[in-house]
Amino acid sequence: MSNPVTISDCKCVLVIGATAGLGRALALAIHELPSKPTVIAAGRRQQRLDELAKQGARIKTLTFDVNVSRDALKSAVQDVCQKYPELDAVLFVSGVQHLFDFKKPETVNLDILEGELNTNYTAIARMVTFFLPHFLKLSDQARPSLLVTVTSGLGIVPGPWVPNYCATKAALHSLTLSLHNQLSDTKVKVAEIFPPLVESELHDHQGTTPKLSKMWLPLEDFTKEAMEGLKRGDVQIPVGRVKQQWDIFEKGKLEKSANSMAIFSKAQ
Question: Which segments does the entry list as coiled coil (predicted)?
Answer without folding.
Answer: none
